[in-house]
Design goal:
This protein is mainly alpha-helical. It is 44% helix and 9% strand. The strands form two sheets. The protein has a two-stranded parallel ribbon. A two-stranded antiparallel ribbon has the order 2-3. InterPro entries: NADAR, YbiA-like_sf.
């Protein structure tokens, strides 16, 4: 039977909002969400959003700014967004030994973002909902969990 490691919220090292410094593309980021939103603004050439995202210390504010990126094209973004998350998390975990050990400690399980608010990156369910117990009951795609599981393995 498949075993799962559930996570959600910024307190989890697996969260994109978890506060941790890493360097990527010659820049320093304060969390994976900041890199993700930076790349979103950069992909669509929105210099003002790049500036505001990089100036912000808050992943919630960064996400909000990322939702307002000028020239955003959903199809283009969906085609590359997983690669961006993969790259951010590789940097995050490879540059922070303590986080890497936490990730490696989940071996033998599938990582699952138990976010009740996200049907793409998460499973659209909270961890205390019985529907999380079986993959075919999930209401979301779990892209983040899949990327983290692949990174770990």
């Amino acid at each position: 039977q498949e075993k799962f490691t559930y996570f959600w919220r910024y307190e989890s090292p697996f969260s994109q909002h978890y506060p941790v410094t890493f360097e990527l593309d010659g820049m320093t980021f304060n969390c994976a969400e900041q890199y993700y939103m930076f790349k979103k603004a950069d992909t669509f050439g929105d210099q003002r959003s790049i500036f505001n995202i990089m100036k912000s210390c808050s992943p919630i504010a960064q996400k909000s700014l990322g939702r307002k990126v000028a020239g955003f094209d959903r199809n283009k973004w969906d085609a590359i967004s997983r690669q961006i998350v993969r790259k951010a998390n590789f940097a995050k975990f490879s540059q922070n030994e303590e986080l890497l050990q936490i990730l490696l400690s989940t071996r033998g399980t599938t990582l699952v973002e138990a976010s009740p608010k996200d049907a793409l990156w998460g499973i659209n369910l909270e961890a205390d909902n019985y529907l999380v117990l079986k993959r075919n009951w999930w209401r979301g795609q779990n892209w983040l969990g899949e990327e983290l599981t692949k990174l770990r393995d």
